[in-house]
Amino acid sequence: MKAKKTPAKKAPTKNDTSVSGEAAPFPSDIKPMLATLVNEPVEAEGWLYEVKWDGFRALGYIHGDVVEIRSRNNKSFNEKFYPVYNALQQWGKDIVVDGEIVVLDKKGVPDFSGLQNWRSEADGQLAYYLFDILWLGGKDLMNVPLEERREILRSVTPTEGLIKLSENFEATGSEFFALADKMGLEGIMAKKADSVYVPDARSKDWLKIKTEKHQELIIGGYTKNEGTPKPFSALLLGWFIGNEFHHVTPVGTGFTVKLQKEILEKLKPLEISQCPFKHVPAYNKASRFRPNPPKAEVVWVRPEMVCEISYREMTKDGSIRHPSFRGLREDKNATEVVREMPAPVTEIVNDENKLVKKKVLATPVEQERKTLLNPNEETQVKNVGGHDMKFTNLSKVYWPDDNVTKRDMINYYYQVAPYMLPYLKDRPQTLNRFPHGIKGETFYQKDVKGKAPEWIKTFPYHSYTDGRDKEFLVCTDEASLLYIASLGCIEINPWSSRTEKPDNPDWCIIDLDPDKNTFEQVMEAACVTKQILDAIEVTAYPKTSGSTGLHIYIPFGAKYSYEDSKEFGRKLAKLIHGQLPDFTSIERKVADRQGKMYIDFLQNRPQATVAGPYSLRPKQGATVSMPLHWDEIKLGLTIKSFTIFNAVDRLKEQGDIFTGVLADGIDLEKALQKLESLFGG
């Protein structure tokens, strides 16, 4: 399969009379031609095939000094996608083109979520793929047949840079669709070669066909929910990594009752008593959408039978979203099952019995959130979220022993903002400011009334100390996070509640705060905390404090009051202390603790704060408050395991593992009942 190319022609010049089309004035406000969705590729002569780009449709207008990029709804993209605007300015043609603006991932595949989050060149590599030309050098080309328009477009499209030609491919519709599917593309376009361009019309001369992602997996067991009439509720599926069988996903849709019975008959001879997965799947685990799942029984089977599923998305860690059963693959051995990844930018295909390499997509590019601030200018103005923000004193050293500057700190918060914001959004902040770094004077600031920019949201409160009405700063988005950092706030300290429910925290915190303890003792206390919570079937999420201790978060979902949270924390603290009396304390006064670790439940009071997830800390090493997997709390973990130097790489690898904290929350009444039943309250 190869891109269809025509012999090179001399590029048309301004007002070139050799170009087909009728003389016409420069157009404006064209609404693009639209395609009709169909369920399978067209197999017929006279059709051209190209990639369906997963981006924003955009018309580019160039006429003398006038340059515009417009959306399909005629909104300007000039500022939003300024690199494309700049590239059009440099093109030097009188032209109107139709195409798609995309952000490309490392394999050159469009990433729509990356495009939605794009704000600057640090956020990803833009490309503007052109697939049509509507006007050139004084001539209207919309009534010229598509195939001829494509030849004209090819002759004028730049050979380098982010403006690219969306190639047609010499292949049957089914062949090209299969390749698009394998490469993880959104789909393909089929267009009649002789079609004209009809603005603002959904035409059957242009068709779009979307792909669906598939994956083969091995059955390791099945569940049956209490009270269900179905033969089973879900298959538990996995794959081998080396010699270890890892659970990947349950699948509970895509079956008929008849098919389920047939599957059970085939699985019957494979039943075993022990779980075949390396880790037992949490098949009874609550989720955001099923906070009280039905009780399920499980039957394990030898991991020998292969099935195929369809799904919407596979995350970097292999988790699968919206899986659906497609069928058993009895023609496949379990040893043949591998994680299927999109093909690379080049695809090896069989062309007349010869293996040839054909370039299908753009050159792979690195897709990562790069630094916001350049390394040279001491003062920089950046547009963040539509706000022009001024960043100053960027070379000031904040961590002298580690040579980490204010610029480094702001760049860090810029890189981790997408991960941090769910835990900061709409929460009042206590500002802990270090204008001269961790060895300079520091001060806390709560009141920002009349001191913050107008676009910063605030939350009112009354100070009984001086009888004045004051305002907390509220973090709402990336811009407000970076504004907080620009004030010299090394650590970010959000409330546990949001402004819409200020009296109802989203989580309860157990803060393990050591004094003369070893970190091994801190980890032991965390493990005891987990044992107690496991016993009452409460899920919790740990993170390093970034200082000396550990924080354990229990989802509350804003369903209960701060008093409820504090009292639940108090009960847990007493139980933890009861099991570890030799080196823990629940005494509030420092003198009464006698050097023991404080199990702090009083962080669950209104306006109390701890450093948020992914926050930096004003400690030597530029440490980070990092979410953990429970199995990481073991010998070898230290406070300095996560710093400004490695935290971003961990997030790229692991993603945000703390999201369960924002779930609907525990059933507190049930948890308290179990606590009393098991531990006597």
Automatic annotation (TrEMBL):
<dbReference type="GO" id="GO:0006281">
    <property type="term" value="P:DNA repair"/>
</dbReference>
<dbReference type="Pfam" id="PF04679">
    <property type="entry name" value="DNA_ligase_A_C"/>
</dbReference>
<keyword id="KW-0238">DNA-binding</keyword>
<dbReference type="InterPro" id="IPR012340">
    <property type="entry name" value="NA-bd_OB-fold"/>
</dbReference>
<dbReference type="InterPro" id="IPR012309">
    <property type="entry name" value="DNA_ligase_ATP-dep_C"/>
</dbReference>
<feature type="compositionally biased region" description="Basic residues">
    <location>
        <begin position="1"/>
        <end position="12"/>
    </location>
</feature>
<keyword id="KW-0436">Ligase</keyword>
<dbReference type="Pfam" id="PF21686">
    <property type="entry name" value="LigD_Prim-Pol"/>
</dbReference>
<feature type="region of interest" description="Disordered">
    <location>
        <begin position="1"/>
        <end position="24"/>
    </location>
</feature>
<keyword id="KW-0269">Exonuclease</keyword>
<dbReference type="InterPro" id="IPR014143">
    <property type="entry name" value="NHEJ_ligase_prk"/>
</dbReference>
<keyword id="KW-0547">Nucleotide-binding</keyword>
<dbReference type="GO" id="GO:0003910">
    <property type="term" value="F:DNA ligase (ATP) activity"/>
</dbReference>
<keyword id="KW-0234">DNA repair</keyword>
<protein>
    <recommendedName>
        <fullName>DNA ligase (ATP)</fullName>
        <ecNumber>6.5.1.1</ecNumber>
    </recommendedName>
</protein>
<keyword id="KW-0239">DNA-directed DNA polymerase</keyword>
<keyword id="KW-0227">DNA damage</keyword>
<dbReference type="GO" id="GO:0003887">
    <property type="term" value="F:DNA-directed DNA polymerase activity"/>
</dbReference>
<keyword id="KW-0540">Nuclease</keyword>
<dbReference type="InterPro" id="IPR014145">
    <property type="entry name" value="LigD_pol_dom"/>
</dbReference>
<feature type="domain" description="ATP-dependent DNA ligase family profile">
    <location>
        <begin position="119"/>
        <end position="242"/>
    </location>
</feature>
<dbReference type="GO" id="GO:0046872">
    <property type="term" value="F:metal ion binding"/>
</dbReference>
<keyword id="KW-0464">Manganese</keyword>
<dbReference type="GO" id="GO:0005524">
    <property type="term" value="F:ATP binding"/>
</dbReference>
<keyword id="KW-0479">Metal-binding</keyword>
<dbReference type="InterPro" id="IPR012310">
    <property type="entry name" value="DNA_ligase_ATP-dep_cent"/>
</dbReference>
<keyword id="KW-0511">Multifunctional enzyme</keyword>
<keyword id="KW-0808">Transferase</keyword>
<dbReference type="GO" id="GO:0003677">
    <property type="term" value="F:DNA binding"/>
</dbReference>
<dbReference type="Pfam" id="PF01068">
    <property type="entry name" value="DNA_ligase_A_M"/>
</dbReference>
<dbReference type="InterPro" id="IPR014146">
    <property type="entry name" value="LigD_ligase_dom"/>
</dbReference>
<keyword id="KW-0233">DNA recombination</keyword>
<keyword id="KW-0548">Nucleotidyltransferase</keyword>
<keyword id="KW-0378">Hydrolase</keyword>
<dbReference type="GO" id="GO:0004527">
    <property type="term" value="F:exonuclease activity"/>
</dbReference>
<dbReference type="InterPro" id="IPR052171">
    <property type="entry name" value="NHEJ_LigD"/>
</dbReference>
<keyword id="KW-0067">ATP-binding</keyword>
<dbReference type="GO" id="GO:0006310">
    <property type="term" value="P:DNA recombination"/>
</dbReference>
